């Protein structure tokens, strides 16, 4: 069996007869016509053996779904117009009034906003657990719990949980476990086989991926996916997907298909540059803490080592906590002074990005493993590392006491 990298390049797509180009075609449609009424009545799209309507899939979107299953080690995939839509699709497929959901305390913010907004309004209860303490998850699962979200690493603060332990707890309690796999991207670890060599495989039930990030890689596409190995679970997600009218167009799918063959290479480049900059930041007195799972004192470093050590992968994000002596205005001035790191959300594209976060508002109480101060998150792009380091150095001059 060849590696994922190779499989993303050598794939089973079959071009039209006599047109032996390996690049998938772009198919676009709302209407698909049927040869007769009998075909119209019987044709089945849910198993992807045929086509009935553009929203239900085209050869281009089926190809992308197949390729993403290869990337993440799953069997069934639905595509959505954003990563957040994929998160919402999973929640709406699995939860109803009276049910409850558990989110990690370092969850991707908009997932929490969905829980506090629509889900709460529809009588779905959400509790937050500490992903660094599996016993806390076990204690908070009740007979009402239908869905547990996990992230590795967590958003913004990048703690790395004991993912196999969290998954085992969900399995033992019969609760669906969904991973937001945007950080690992299918390259850092296999979400459906967390402990390779063990049988049966230990894995999450659902892997959600913001394709907006590394699979796109261009900073120009919004897309998400929800992948499973379980046919019954997939049918639930697919049914909600259909009822909500979610789908993606051929041109967008093609942009992701075009980027997938270079994804592993880009991921490694983002990763290497990020580790280099994180190590440089450790030496700087302005930072009270540097957060990156590969650093030996990072929260959950041993769990990262166990899960991602074989691939030696750690994505392209790191955060710093600026020393508490700096005012918000000074930290803002530092961010404003950055030239190559642009102020902007998202990540996974060629350009480096920076966002200051108000962690005191996001995390109550303040996590004991974090230094006091203002948190700034960097998403490292594909620029030359020396240029990025020089950019950080010149912006840090903004923090020098003016005298
Ligand atoms: C960006 C992101 C999402 C959402 O993706 P969008 O396509 O921007 O909606 C979800 N989860 C994580 C961890 C992300 O970083």
CATH topology of the largest domain: Aspartate Aminotransferase, domain 2
- SSE-based structural type: alpha/beta
Label the CATH architecture of the largest domain: 3-Layer(aba) Sandwich
Radius of gyration: 22 Å
CATH class of the largest domain: Alpha Beta
CATH superfamily of the largest domain: Type I PLP-dependent aspartate aminotransferase-like (Major domain)
Query: How many individual domains?
Result: 2
Helix percentage range: 25-40%
Instruction: Please work out how many helical segments DSSP would assign.
Output: 14
Shape: globular
Low-confidence stretches: none
| Distinct small molecules | pyridoxal-5'-phosphate
Keywords: Lyase, Pyridoxal phosphate
EC number: 4.4.1.13
Organism: Rhodoferax ferrireducens
Family: Belongs to the trans-sulfuration enzymes family.
Summarize the structure.
It comes from Rhodoferax ferrireducens. With 403 residues, the protein is α/β, with parallel strands linked by helices.
List keywords for this structure.
about 400 residues, alpha/beta, Aspartate Aminotransferase, domain 2, Aspartate Aminotransferase, domain 1, 2 domains, 7-stranded mixed sheet, 5-stranded mixed sheet, 12 strands, binds pyridoxal-5'-phosphate
Kindly describe this structure.
Its EC number is 4.4.1.13. GO terms for molecular function: cysteine-S-conjugate beta-lyase activity. InterPro entries: Cys/Met-Metab_PyrdxlP-dep_enz, Cys_b_lyase_bac, PyrdxlP-dep_Trfase, PyrdxlP-dep_Trfase_major, PyrdxlP-dep_Trfase_small. It is a single chain. By secondary structure, the chain is α/β, with parallel strands linked by helices. The chain has two domains: 37-261, 3-Layer(aba) Sandwich (Aspartate Aminotransferase, domain 2), CATH 3.40.640.10; 263-399, Aspartate Aminotransferase, domain 1, CATH 3.90.1150.10. Helices cover 36% and strands 16% of the residues. It has 14 helices and twelve strands. The chain has a seven-stranded mixed β-sheet, with helices on both faces. Strand 4 (145-151), helix 7 (163-173) and strand 5 (176-180) form a beta-alpha-beta unit. The model has no long low-confidence stretch (mean pLDDT 95). Pyridoxal-5'-phosphate (PLP) binds next to helix 4. Pyridoxal-5'-phosphate binds next to helix 4.
């Amino acid at each position: 069996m060849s590696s994922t990298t190779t499989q993303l390049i050598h794939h089973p797509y079959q071009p039209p007869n006599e047109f032996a180009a390996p690049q998938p075609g772009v198919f676009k449609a709302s209407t698909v016509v049927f040869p007769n009424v009998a075909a119209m009545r019987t044709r089945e799209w849910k198993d992807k053996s045929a086509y009935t309507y553009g929203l239900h899939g085209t050869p281009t979107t089926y190809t992308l779904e197949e390729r993403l299953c290869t990337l993440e080690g799953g069997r069934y995939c639905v595509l959505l117009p954003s990563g957040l839509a994929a998160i919402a699709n999973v929640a709406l497929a699995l939860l109803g009034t009276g049910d409850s959901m558990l989110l990690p305390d370092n969850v991707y913010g908009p997932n929490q906003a969905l829980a506090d907004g629509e889900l709460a309004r529809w009588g779905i209860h959400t509790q937050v657990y500490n992903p660094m303490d599996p016993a806390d998850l076990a204690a908070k699962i009740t007979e009402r719990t239908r869905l547990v979200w996990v992230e590795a690493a967590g958003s913004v603060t990048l703690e790395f949980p004991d993912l196999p332990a969290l998954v085992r707890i969900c399995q033992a309690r019969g609760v669906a476990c969904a991973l937001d796999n945007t950080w690992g991207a299918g390259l850092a670890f296999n979400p459906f086989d967390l402990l390779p060599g063990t049988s049966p495989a230990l894995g999450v039930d659902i892997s959600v991926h913001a394709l907006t990030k590394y699979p796109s890689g261009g900073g120009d596409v919004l897309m998400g996916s929800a992948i499973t190995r379980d046919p019954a679970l997939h049918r639930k997600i697919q049914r909600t997907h259909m009822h909500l009218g979610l789908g993606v167009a051929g041109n967008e799918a093609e942009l992701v298909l075009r980027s997938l063959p270079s994804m592993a290479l880009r991921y490694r480049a983002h990763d290497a540059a990020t580790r280099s900059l994180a190590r440089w930041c450790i030496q700087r007195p302005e930072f009270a803490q540097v957060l990156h799972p590969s650093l030996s004192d990072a929260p959950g470093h041993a769990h990262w080592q166990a899960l991602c050590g074989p691939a030696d992968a750690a994505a392209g994000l790191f955060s710093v906590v600026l020393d508490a002596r700096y005012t918000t205005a000074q930290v803002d001035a530092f961010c404003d002074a950055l030239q190559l790191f642009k102020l902007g959300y998202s990540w996974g594209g060629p350009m480096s990005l920076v966002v200051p976060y108000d962690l005191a508002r996001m995390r109550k109480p303040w996590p004991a493993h974090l230094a006091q101060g203002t948190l700034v998150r960097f998403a490292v792009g594909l620029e030359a590392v020396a240029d990025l380091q020089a950019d950080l150095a010149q912006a840090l001059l903004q923090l020098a006491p003016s005298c």
